[in-house]
Design a protein that fits this description.
The chain is an alpha/beta fold. Helix content is 29%, strand content 33%. The chain contains 9 helices and 14 strands. A hairpin with a 2-residue loop joins β2 and β3.
Length: 275
Amino acid sequence: MSNYIQLLIAPVTSEASDILVAQLSELGFDGFEENENALIAYCAESMYNAEAINELLEGNYSYTKELIAKINWNEEWEKNFSPVVVDDFVGVRAHFHEPISGVFHEIVITPKMSFGTGHHATTHMMMQQMQGLDFTGKKVFDFGTGTGILAILAEMLGATEIYAIDNDEWSVENAAENISNNACTKIQLALNDNPVLLPQYDIILANINKNVILAFFDMLKTGLKPNGQLLVSGLLAEDENDIVLAANALGLKFVQIIQRDKWISLLFFNENFQN
């Protein structure tokens, strides 16, 4: 497990913080804490690109950089991690929380630095949109699984075969722990940063960012069965047109959008039967 780089960016408005999370995610940052007037971002030391960070932040924001040695992230997150509830559909909590009542599904995760605890708007919207999809007996691909939370929910919703990948070793390690803790048996988890050829799936989940989605759109379309559904997030509101245009060019039909804060989640339907 590598050391981490911590960036403390302050002052920063809530709106600017949302945009920075998206931009820093594209630069390899996979952990964020949004405090009042400040954003704390974490990146594996091996992924840190000083030139790109300087280009993004210099002259626009004040920030400090700190090297964080191997740390007990469970202890750190336990100080601030709170349960997440999406309507009466699903609740996400850590093992040290009391069970959540009044929800149909409950996911218990070990909160580490992996992105996707349910707190961020994008993960919240992905789960919210999943409520309206039929996963029963379906084959699912989770592209950029993070904590594994969406793959776990897919199995709880009846998916019978789930392939979940991430390009971050720490995320895969955390996802494996969470998959085990939730007694899931239908999820195949892999460390993979360049999926080229996929078998076809009924539902594809991609909660990543605009650049990655656009770069892999052909692969996602090829991997989607006729009548299959593609659910994406990790996107800012201003990304909508670029994503919809790219999807339409591939024969994917736009179904719906939901928005939370400055973030959006889009659902597409594969109406092109020539895969």
